[in-house]
Amino acid sequence: MIDPCARCEEVLQPFLDRELTEAEMQEAESHLDDCSYCRKRYRFEVELRRYVRQAVVEPMPVELKARLAALARTTPLEG
To answer: With a threshold of 0.70, does the pTM exceed it?
Structure first.
């Protein structure tokens, strides 16, 4: 028999991406309703995805871009 938490871990990313069948989605949702450990893991993944999306969308300040460009021009490449 497959450990339900191991199964949940296996399908968590596809669950978040909405790539599971309806039956698999219901199975995962049911487990998340009953298991506080997996629910915490799910919440962590949701927050992590939110953070990554925000970081990607947030533009880099002009001053930082200029400083990085100046560093790139003055720092020799190692290798």
So the answer is: no
